[in-house]
Amino acid sequence: MDIVKSVQNYINKMVNEVTGMKVLLLDSETTPIISNVMTQSSLLSHETYLVDRIDNKNRDRMRHLKCICFIRPTSETIQMLVEELRDPRYGDYYLYFSNTLSKSSIERLAEVDEHEVVREVQEYFADYCAINPDFYSLNLSLPQYRLYGDSQNTWESKTFQRVIEGVLAVLLSLKKKPLIRYEKMSVMAKALAEEVHYSIQKEGELFVFRPTDTPPILLILDRRNDPVTPLLSQWTYQAMVHELLGIHNGRVDLSDVPDIRPELKEIVLSRDQDPFYKKNMYLNLGDLGANIKSYVEEYQAKTKSSINIESIADMKRFVEEYPEFRKLSGNVSKHVALVSELSRLVEKETLLEVSELEQSLACYGQHSSDLKNLQKLIANPKISEDSKIRLVSLYSLRYEKSPNNDVISLIELLRRNGVSEDKISFIGSIMEFAGSDQRQDDLFSNESLLSFGKNVFKGLKGVENVYTQHSPHLSQTIELLVKGKLKETSYPFIEGSTKDRPQDIIIFMVGGVTYEEARHIAQINASAAGFRVVLGGTTVHNSVSYLNEIQDAFYRFPSGGGTGARLARFSKPRNGY
Amino acid sequence: MSSISDSNSLSNLTMLSNSLPANNSHRESLIFDDSSSLEQLACPICNEQMVSLLQLNRHLDDEHMDTSIDQKDGIIKWFKNAQSTIMKPLSKTKNNISQLAMNKFNEFDINGLDKQSEFVTKAHWKQDVENIVCSNSACEKSLNIINGKHNCRKCGEFFCEDHCRLSMKLNRQAQHDPVNGYFCRVCDDCFVSREGYLDTEGVTRSCTSIFIKYRTKGIERAHLEGNRLEQRLEKLAKVYITQIKQVNSTQGGLAPPLTAKHRRRVSEQSIVKWQDDASVTNCPLCRTSFGKITNRKHHCRLCGRVICEKCSSKIPLNLNNYSEVADQDSIGEIRACKECRSAVFRRKEYNEEIAKTPPVVMLYQKLTKIRSAIDSTLPKFQDMLIMLKSKEIINQTHADYQLAARSRKELLDNFAQFDAISKRINSLLTYSESERRLQSNIHLAANQYLQQNMLPLSVLPKMFKKDQTQNTNGQQYGYFDDDDDSSEAIPAFAAFANGRPRSLSMSSTKSVKEEEQLRQQLEAFLEQEKRLEEFIQEATRKRKFDDLKTLKTSLDEIKLEIDKKRKELGDLWP
């Protein structure tokens, strides 16, 4: 179950299908799918010399090229392809579709192919972005794709269709016909589970695989069951870069970084191409700092040896090592720039202090000290508004049911410190959206006496790193699942059931996943405990994108009302005074 | 009495809490549910009474280890029954099992996995010997009570607890069988290497045949339409010809041109019926409205429709329309609408366009040919080197050595040619941005290929060299051996490596061989000079000034060396 390899396999098969000079024609959705797993040079080595978009109308006519089309079949792209085939710009066409192609689409395409340029028509189910070998995303983000329909329990229909197809593609590319389980509280998870199940039945001929020891499990979860994880500051490399700078299809935009060198304005983070990144992506900033230091030293040692060219032999060696050396030098400056930018941001926004309180709120919570710290941080002008909002949100999620919670005065404090009303309204949104009435599991382990005791114990035990204590709710769910202890009452099966410990688990999270969860999954898989997990979701969130998605949804919900209505819940007690 | 019952219930509790998870995790036991109950536990072979499954197991192991398969089948059948008896009270959480059995069940919990393996053959297990270590390549633990000692039920090797804790389903022959197998303890390797486990080939589905089926239908229709129009075109051509002839024959009389035009129009309409002017107000293709002066009405001579000026064009009339060349003895022009025009000419134009081969295609074909030649000789050459090394062939007159030398020469020639062609492709004239991109990308890919394959090759001769200098102190050889004396492998010359580049000792008389050698060296230096210059250009472009400095020093050095060589050669041949 290595989804990066699965996607790479598909693409290699496409570009190896035919020899000769080739052009690769993509659409807006298949471009990120490919750019996440392939590099320019690997495409070049397969004689794919040009890459272009099918929606680019100004492509030149080059009949001596063979054209590999990799297209997500939608009505728009089929129309573009029809126009392309009517007046073919290239010699031969090899059409690959990232999902099932309807009969009528085949017919339409066949009708216009008067020059008989099409050689192959295939369905290759690489219909998702593979980020890590065990982590994928459907890249459904605003504004192109909205998740929620007209309430927090309904799908936007276009997105829903895309998600069903995406999940099916994941299953087909991994060759799994799973039993489907879903989170019972989530209406959207249930709808998706049913629809995926129906599609598997419908496409029965595709889902014929060799039997497995235990049936694979597709577990459909809802982000709303764990609103905490995307709100936390991150300290491991991959997660931190996404939280502070944003990783978009493996690329990081550094153009806003002060004094950045022009070639580093946009950098690529690729596990395959960058051994340093691969080694360090799950390490926290402390370990990362040490590693980057030794990386720089290694580089300096190499530079020294190459400066020291005194004989032809030295020079010849240098010339041989030069490409390698150049690559290293580029990589070193890339990571140094990235890490120094991260530490600059941490310093600037006093994120260490923020994170300490976040972790305390997320993991154990001692009300009086938390409140005191929170008030102190809100008053601190160095801390960004977004951080303050995140902190108060965490506070209100954590102490929602606590009788002496003081959200109202905190909101008042936010106002007094100049935080905009617009941002403050998020606190109301998230409570409406993922308050304890909306969640099915005991997220903070504070609802039963037993788990409360466990919690206190956890606090006493002491931790290695104050900033990375939190472990996402997801890891607990997986632990229960592989032990066969995940309750059917809260995670029912769509059809069938098994008590076997699953060996292959595919998770899809409605509402987005985080890199923190990706790291936990990677750790679970590395432990090789006899089961494999692949995690994915509608998108990969950081706190900003998560906030935006919820805010966008609430502005549109007819039931949501204005900011005032959502904040009303906090002012009720005050009216009572 | 009460104290006993207390302890009873207590142990019942512990038993339950212990065995329940086991029951969950090894649910295969449910497979056996259908069998009838059997009250007693007795060995099926010797009928000895047993108190527990575990005891029975041990008994079977000890006493009946070598029973044949037939008997084993019997055992299994019986075993199922026995097990269901035992499991039943447990699943109903009744407390009527004897204290002894309960204690044993606690063990069953731990050994549950191994229990299942009893069905699976042990014939392939490795023999237990003293001081064995875990067979996992990354683990060197000696196997004992603390580290555990287990046979992987599939491969039979010994492993420690940590490397033999996974479970997969095996059949009685210890082969993987996900449907009818039993969960057995296996090692990591067996777990991972089962069929399909590491498969990364996703599902694909081909729609090509359906596509072609649909296309064939459509193509036939289009061809029919095309043929029909072509026939009309031919008829029109014939009409024109006869009219021209008539005009020629009646040259004497002054036939007013208007009538000629009129006659032609009539004959045109006899082939294709024209649409009535009055019935059309807008052009059917572009929807612009017709006017009396501004946007006049025209008729397509092929389909007869009324069409505007913009949507129609004049097409040439040929007598033999099927000929490949369009502008051959054209006898006139007729107006045709866009659609008819493309229906008639599309195929022809497309084929013409396809037939044109731009220069880049030819060069690229050459490039591919060379590349495939390199791809086939390179591995052979590397094998040869390994062979030479292993046989310690150092004599240059040896046939194998000569062969290797030849193939290396061939490779280098091919690389040089490859490089040259790729550069030529890059410098070809281009007419569009895409062509520019295509050509520079081909060049880029070729450079990539050279970097991957040629630079490692230049390291290889060192091995040659090493053997040579160490043993025979023989002469130089080939292309890249310029660094001969300072080769790091030879301590005697290590001093040179830190010193100045060594110039060849000058002797007043030089053999032809030496001269040849010098030439080769010079050639190598020139090649390097060229390469360095490229690197410098690249470094300048990428603004890597650190690299640039070192590169420039290197270049100066090599230029010095080239001058020296030239002088030497010059001395030789004034």
From TrEMBL, chain A:
InterPro entries: Sec-1-like_dom1, Sec-1-like_dom3a, Sec1-like, Sec1-like_dom2, Sec1-like_sf. The keyword Membrane applies. Coiled coil: none annotated. GO terms for cellular component: bounding membrane of organelle; cytoplasmic vesicle; Golgi apparatus; SNARE complex. One of its GO terms (biological process) is regulation of vesicle fusion. Pfam families: Sec1. It is a peripheral membrane protein. Keywords: Membrane, Protein transport, Transport. It is found in: Endomembrane system. Belongs to the STXBP/unc-18/SEC1 family. This is Vacuolar protein sorting-associated protein 45. It comes from Rhizophagus irregularis (strain DAOM 197198w) (Glomus intraradices).
UniProtKB/TrEMBL annotation, chain B:
InterPro entries: Rad18_UBZ4, Rbsn_Rab-bd, Rbsn_Rab-bd_sf, Znf_FYVE, Znf_FYVE-rel, Znf_FYVE_PHD, Znf_RING/FYVE/PHD. GO terms for molecular function: DNA binding; zinc ion binding. SUPFAM superfamilies: FYVE/PHD zinc finger, Rabenosyn-5 Rab-binding domain-like. Residues 139-195, 277-345 form the FYVE-type domain. GO terms for biological process: DNA repair. Residues 512-568 form a coiled coil. The keyword Repeat does not apply. It holds the Pfam family Rbsn. Keywords: Coiled coil, DNA damage, DNA repair, Metal-binding, Zinc, Zinc-finger. PANTHER family: EARLY ENDOSOME ANTIGEN 1. This is Vacuolar segregation protein pep7. The lineage of its organism: Eukaryota, Fungi, Fungi incertae sedis, Mucoromycota, Glomeromycotina.
